[in-house]
Amino acid sequence: MTLLLIGINHKSAPVEVRERLSIPEARLGEATARLARHPGIAEAMILSTCNRVELVAAATNGAADLRGFMREYFSADLSELEKCLYEYRDREAMQHLFRVAASLDSMIVGEPQILGQVKEAYAIARQVGALHADLEQLVSRALATAKRVRSETSIGSSAVSVASAAVELAKEIFGSLEGKNVYLVGAGKMSELAAQHLLAQGAGAIFVANRTHEHALRLAQKFGGQALLFEQLYETADRADIVITSTGAPHAIFRREHGERFLQRRKNRPMFFIDIAVPRDVDAGMSRLDGIFVYDIDDLQSVVSTNLAGRIREAERAQQIIEEELDRLTWRIKTREVAPTIVSLQEHLETIRQAEVDRARGRLGKLTPQQEDAIEALTRGIVNKVLHSPITTLKHAAGHPQSTTVVEIIQRIFNLNLNVNRHQEAGAEAAVESEEDAASPAKRSPR
């Protein structure tokens, strides 16, 4: 498998660039299936969040034109985005995916939402049939590593979510949120998290509007707020001092003319919009109105930097865990290519051993149980010693250019039949894994 990854994130591009490549959740399955059908691609997954859009693919011939897919799918001139794109291959791509899942590449290091977003992208890719053996194993391992990072480090203990950072920004603006009316536009997970933090800070009335009114009702009831019809958004938004918006709308839903109307009704009392959607929900023109203050997701970076020092120390430990898991996975992938030869060799020598033991029983006559055990132990010991050298040679050759030659030589020497079925291959991989503790680089290095 050749792993390829191309993407854009909050570190490589501002939000006005990222929103051009954003894929709404409703279209993610179709986009993933389309990527998997792109020439040269065997498996695929797409991760699209407010802070990143990344295409991950297993290439059939070692290369695939992911840029070509992006040009076609997004109808984008990539020459304008060239400086914002990053590309990784094989080990670097694996490491990046592991870091993303473990929240080491997030705007807020240690934030918990990204793990759920990677799981969702994984589930969608499986649902549309875009994942098979290799990439599925890789993503599954990345998710397991992220869980290990959370259980073995304190990286998430002092972290804040994007939603809580938005609330911190509102506190900086107002000094206190006591009695401030809040309007949540969008009833997704981010809005729910924002509502939790707002109530903890003593916010007053909470209004919720969502295109699906039942979702707004559910969220409003959960926090003792009031659900309002999305169609009445522009007639009701002026009730709020703070508007936190996080919808999946492809274009801005709040524009300058709306802000002018709100200020007129509020008699010029200020309104604060915290826009945590990508694409953005609030047009930049609104921020030019006196009395309207607009902050987008990139503005949250200054809020989260204060807790950075403690998380950096935990991030270093998390990176060690990722390297260990990458070494294990790399070793497993490399040794898998020689697994059928190993299992065939084991079965070949076991057949010879059994035949010779049966022949000896015919000459020796009836044996006691102790004698049977002694013959079994003796012959198995001889077979294991004979197997040790060729199996070790096969494992060391795995992943190197000479591996094909080594495999062919051992097959000829022992006259092996490689009609190995899937069950036998699984057994071979299990046998290889059982020796990882002694052989793999991750297990040889001290933690």
Write the layout of secondary structure elements.
Elements (H helix, E strand, L loop, with lengths): L1 E8 L5 H4 L6 H12 L4 E8 L3 E8 L6 H9 L3 H4 L4 E4 L1 H11 L11 H15 L6 H19 L9 H13 L7 E4 L3 H12 L5 E5 L2 H10 L3 E4 L3 H4 L5 E4 L10 H10 L5 E5 L16 E5 L4 H4 L3 H29 L2 H26 L4 H29 L5 H11 L8 H13 L1 H4 L1 H4 L3
Parallel strand pairs: 5-6, 5-8, 6-7, 8-9, 9-10
Antiparallel strand pairs: 1-3, 1-4, 2-3
Helix pairs in contact: 2-6, 5-7, 5-14, 6-7, 7-14, 8-9, 15-16, 15-18, 16-17
Question: What features would you describe in this structure?
Answer:
- The strands form 2 sheets. The protein has a 6-stranded parallel β-sheet. The protein has a 4-stranded antiparallel β-sheet with strand order 2-3-1-4.
- The chain is of the alpha/beta class.
- It has helices at 15-18, 25-36, 66-74, 78-81, 91-101, 113-127, 134-152, 162-174, 189-200, 213-222, 233-236, 256-265, 301-304, 308-336, 339-364, 369-397, 403-413, 422-434, 436-439, 441-444; strands at residues 2-9, 41-48, 52-59, 86-89, 182-185, 206-210, 226-229, 242-245, 271-275, 292-296.
- It has 3 domains: 2-152, Beta Polymerase, domain 2 (2-Layer Sandwich), CATH 3.30.460; 162-306, Rossmann fold (3-Layer(aba) Sandwich); 337-444, no CATH class.
- The protein has 20 helices and 10 strands.
- Helices cover 54% and strands 12% of the residues.
